[in-house]
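Deliverable D2.4 — example input (structure tokens):
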């Protein structure tokens, strides 16, 4: 226990006054004569002992009353665990303005609570002290010290934001700012609901000379139902086709949801809905089907209804219903089956079809192609193989039908570079197809029902390979003799499909068989680089464009325009862009803050449609309790950290206790009054 004004302790010398009065009682007694005092002797002795006890009690009450009164003037206090500093201070106050702060308690939303507590914090300090306001947005205007009045003005402007930050990043940001702007007398306060997935802090990143105070703000009820993720069941969405879209809905509450409704809107019109039931604390995959009725880009929204947290009840997505697969068939100089590939792909709107002869290959279109078919080439030249390697490394798919007249030396050299097995010989024994690997993605969903007695292609001659030790190679279709009819090798992000048969009709009936069309179509679809149906706000997303321009003179823009009431609000940002491997990639650099639909604009012409959604990290309603926070502080030995709970008392009192320690002067003043009252009672009632 320390004293704020220890000089007042000199007043303890006043205790000597009642003691002196007690020891030197100058009162004169008058003698009264009795004829016989024999019967008064015992009464006199008993009265003397009671009188002495009464006088001692009165003395004790007077001494204690004077001592307590002196202590009250000296203002005793119990020092706080945190170090107090004198002089002008710099205080950094972080307000969590993430979506989870939209929750309510008895005082309103958690964000309004945080702003009220921030006001109390500021009013606790002196007028000469300086303040920093920090939110999840990490805005430039928050990187300076403010007076009380300036702080209050900025505090009024704080709104809910889509940005989220880990607690460790927030503390580091506050520390760096204070060290650069105020080298001494600094304090840090953090007002948040302390979600578990963002409440992470490491001792290595903490300046132990700073006092850090956590102020947890809890909601009355933890409840949230939200759409977590969305995806299509098939990789390609074509005009006029039936599509199934999946949505994972999570129930972060203790209540069961019965007969919930998931609504699907496409291009502004509701096209379908689905009902769902989810028990408390669980999630569910809800599917909903619809027909694609519009060509080109379609904009969809999945909606549920929930309260009070509503930002995650909508999920925006976009897809192109006019997807084009760029296919190139390179035919050998003696090939006779080029018409089969041409008839399959040239007249199909799904394909942008090109043909080359092995005598004149246009390498310039490789970068704009999804799938290349090598149809019975006599020789695989080193230049062709080098370009194929680049094509595969960039995610392209290659389909190889070897020729009966193949130059085996050039083939084996190329196969070695493409990590394929070596050719041993041409086997001319007739055989049949024995089995298909339906578990691999190529044939997944091709057949509604698998019949073991189905008619499979016949093979009249095929190449025999060496046994490969490459674990990436998968046999998709096997012959009766155990050899592979079709194998797949995945290299980097690309694929190589290798047939052991030529495409010629004298080698097999594959090109006339019903299996050929779905096989080649599925290879084509899997060659696509699927474009994400949505992106996240407030992060640095990478958006790939099928454009090879550098845009040095005409920068790209990402725009969003929403008509609100009478005046439209327009968002227009210039993203960072890089040209990598003939592909332009945009980087949003955390600039997109609002969910919704956006356009990539080149010279005022839209080149790509995008959908952005808020990060679902804030949707997880799991929070750190005071005990959990304290445990984490203790485990990491952060002695400069403390927790202030505003619910126990007013925040002002709690802060004063932290700053000045626990003051005891009121207690001693009350004790002084109690002792004086006890003295009066002893005098009056003690007979």
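Example output (designed residues):
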């Amino acid at each position: 226990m320390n004293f704020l004004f220890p000089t007042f302790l000199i007043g303890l010398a006043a205790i000597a006054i009642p003691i002196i009065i007690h020891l030197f009682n100058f009162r004169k007694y008058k003698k009264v004569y009795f004829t016989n005092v024999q019967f008064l002797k015992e009464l006199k002795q008993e009265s003397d002992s009671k009188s002495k006890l009464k006088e001692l009690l009165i003395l004790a009450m007077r001494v204690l009353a004077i001592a307590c009164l002196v202590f009250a003037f000296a203002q005793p206090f119990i020092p706080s665990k945190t170090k107090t500093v004198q002089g002008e201070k710099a205080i950094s106050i972080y307000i969590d303005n993430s979506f989870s702060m939209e929750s309510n308690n008895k005082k309103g939303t958690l964000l309004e609570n945080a702003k009220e507590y921030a006001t109390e914090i500021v009013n606790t300090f002196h007028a000469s002290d300086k303040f920093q306001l920090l939110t999840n947005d990490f805005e430039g205007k928050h990187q300076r010290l403010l007076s009380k009045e300036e702080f209050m003005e900025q505090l009024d402007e704080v709104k809910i934001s889509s940005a989220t930050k880990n607690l460790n990043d927030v503390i580091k940001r506050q520390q760096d700012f204070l060290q650069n702007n105020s080298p001494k007398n600094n304090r840090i306060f953090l007002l948040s609901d302390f979600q578990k997935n963002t409440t992470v802090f490491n001792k290595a990143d903490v300046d132990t000379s700073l006092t850090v105070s956590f102020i947890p703000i809890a909601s009355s009820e933890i409840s949230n139902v939200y759409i977590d993720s969305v995806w299509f069941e098939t990789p390609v969405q074509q005009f006029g086709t039936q599509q199934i879209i999946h949505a994972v809905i999570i129930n972060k509450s203790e209540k069961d949801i019965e007969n919930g409704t998931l609504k699907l809107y496409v291009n502004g019109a509701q096209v379908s809905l689905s009902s769902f039931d989810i028990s408390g604390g669980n999630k569910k995959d809800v599917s909903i089907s619809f027909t694609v009725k519009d060509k080109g880009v379609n904009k969809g929204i999945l909606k549920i209804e929930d309260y009070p947290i509503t930002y995650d009840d909508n999920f925006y997505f976009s897809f192109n219903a006019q997807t084009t697969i760029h296919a190139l068939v390179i035919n050998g100089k003696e090939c006779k089956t080029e018409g089969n590939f041409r008839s399959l792909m040239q007249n199909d709107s799904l394909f942008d079809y090109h043909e080359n002869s092995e005598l004149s290959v246009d390498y310039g279109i490789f970068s704009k192609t999804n799938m290349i078919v090598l149809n019975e080439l006599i020789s695989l030249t080193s230049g062709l193989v080098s370009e194929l390697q680049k094509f595969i490394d960039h995610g392209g798919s290659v389909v190889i039908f070897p020729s009966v007249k193949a130059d085996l030396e050039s083939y084996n050299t190329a196969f070695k570079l493409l990590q394929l097995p070596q050719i041993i010989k041409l086997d001319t024994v007739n055989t049949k197809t024995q089995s298909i690997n339906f578990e691999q993605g190529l044939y997944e969903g091709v057949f509604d029902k698998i019949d073991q007695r189905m008619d499979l292609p016949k093979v009249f001659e095929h190449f025999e390979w060496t046994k490969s030790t490459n674990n990436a190679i998968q046999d998709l279709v096997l012959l009766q003799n155990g050899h592979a009819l079709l194998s797949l090798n995945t290299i980097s992000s690309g694929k190589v499909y290798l047939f052991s048969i030529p495409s010629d009709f004298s080698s097999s009936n594959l090109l006339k068989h019903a299996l050929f069309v779905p096989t080649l179509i599925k290879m084509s679809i899997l060659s696509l680089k699927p474009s994400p149906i949505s992106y996240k706000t407030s992060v640095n997303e990478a958006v790939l464009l099928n454009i090879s321009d550098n845009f040095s003179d005409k920068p790209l823009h990402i725009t969003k325009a929403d008509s609100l009431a009478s005046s439209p609000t327009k968002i227009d940002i210039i993203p960072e862009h890089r040209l990598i491997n003939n592909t332009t990639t945009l980087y949003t650099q955390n600039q997109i803050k609002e969910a919704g639909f956006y356009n990539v604009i080149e010279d005022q012409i839209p080149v790509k449609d995008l959908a952005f959604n808020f990060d679902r990290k804030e949707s997880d309603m799991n929070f750190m309790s005071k005990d959990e926070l304290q445990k984490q502080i203790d485990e990491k030995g952060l002695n400069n950290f403390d927790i202030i709970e505003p619910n126990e008392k007013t925040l002002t009192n709690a802060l004063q206790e932290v700053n000045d320690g626990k003051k005891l002067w009121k207690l001693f003043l009350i004790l002084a009054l109690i002792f004086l009252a006890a003295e009066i009672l002893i005098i009056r009632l003690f007979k």
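The mean pLDDT is 85.
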